[in-house]
Amino acid sequence: MATVLLQFPNLSVCVQEQKGDKMHSGQAL
């Protein structure tokens, strides 16, 4: 998952805002 965060830094920010609630949806995208 760390690789995804490196490729999409903005995604990590969204995940932190959603407290990991959108983490699964982020992987789908």
What is the N-to-C order of secondary-structure elements (H for helix, E for strand)? HHH
Number of strands: 0
Largest sheet: none
Q: What's the number of structural domains?
A: 1
Helix content: over 70%
Oligomer kind: single chain
Structural class: mainly alpha
* Principal-axis shape: elongated
Report on this model:
- By secondary structure, this protein is mainly alpha-helical.
- It has one domain (1-29).
- Helix content is 72%, strand content 0%.
- The longest helix is centred in the middle third of the chain and has 9 residues, at 9-17.
Short structural description:
By secondary structure, this protein is an all-alpha fold.
What is the secondary structure topology, with strand pairs?
Layout: H1 2-7, H2 9-17, H3 23-28
Characteristics:
single chain; 29 residues; mainly alpha; elongated
